[in-house]
Amino acid sequence: MSEDSPTQQPAADTGRAGIILAGGRSTRFPTVDKALAPLNGQSLLHHVVGAVDPAVDELIVNCRRDQREVFAEELSAFRVRFVVDQIPDRGPLVGLRTALAETSSTYAAVLPCDMPSVPAAFLDFLFARARNRTGAVARFEGRIQPFPAVVHVRAAAAACREAEAAGSDRIEEFVSVLDPHTVPERVVRAHVDPEAFRNINTHDDLAAVRDA
Questions:
Q1: Looking at the domain that runs over 16-202, which CATH code has it been given?
Q2: How many whole angstroms separate alpha carbon 26 and alpha carbon 13?
Q3: Which residues are annotated as a binding site for GTP?
Q4: What's the angle, vertex CA 137, arms to CA 65 and CA 57, rounded to 5?
Q5: Nearest to 64 by CA among 13, 23, 102
Q6: Contact status, residue 120 vs residue 140, Cβ threshold 8 Å
């Protein structure tokens, strides 16, 4: 269910959405919502949204109802729609399906709120690779990376439903069902710094990025 702020309206559809998944409970960040953890003066969520914004025509943040107000304050500099899961805590696959249902764009870039180093230029590259396909993902460090991904919105919604019908709530199963184009690792490394794939899962991970 979409919950726009009074001063924010959905952008006109010109083909590209950016979906940020931020509804997790952040159990390994017990003192702060991970999305709001500070990195170089801005939250992780702010970094991710700021990176995605230049590559897309609309921004959608999937979150819990109790996160929405503080996220809106944090992202006041951006034109963002907030999409709240009707039933919280069912995992990122449900969050993705909820967000996909709220856009009429043809393709969407999908990232979690804890990947602050993905550049917009690499998302542009994935959008180009996804054209006329169900999507595009990267192979890195010998395996297919579920994020960042660019997906065909209708194909991705169908893949979410199929994965859920099979009893899975894993993003990896969704990617398998979607069967997107996989960019070879040598090509990935030619286009983006390996730091782009760093996830911030713990306070130690965050400290490592700060010290880098």
A1: 3.90.550.10
A2: 32
A3: 21-23, 34, 62, 85, 114
A4: 55
A5: 23
A6: no
- DSSP per residue over 91-149, as a string? -HHHHHHHHHTT---SEEEEEETT-TT--HHHHHHHHHHHTTSSEEEEEETTEEEEEEE
Detail the residues annotated as belonging to a binding site for Mg(2+): 114
Quote the CA–CA distance of 112 and 145 in Å, as a whole number: 12
- Report pTM: 0.90
For the chain, domain boundaries: 16-202
Residues in the annotated binding site: 21-23, 34, 62, 85, 114
Quickly tell me which residue has 């030619």 as its tokens. 190
Cβ-Cβ contacts under 8 Å for 107 (sequence gap 6 or more): 15, 16, 17, 127, 130, 131, 135, 150, 151, 152, 153
What CA dihedral angle connects 12, 119, 24 and 174, to 10 degrees?
80
SS3 for 87? coil
Please list the pLDDT of the chain residue by residue as tens digits (212 residues): 555 544 344 443 358 999 999 988 777 777 789 999 999 999 999 999 999 999 999 999 999 999 999 999 999 999 999 999 877 778 899 999 999 999 999 999 999 999 999 999 999 999 999 999 999 999 999 999 999 999 999 999 999 999 999 888 889 999 999 999 999 999 999 999 999 999 988 878 888 887 66
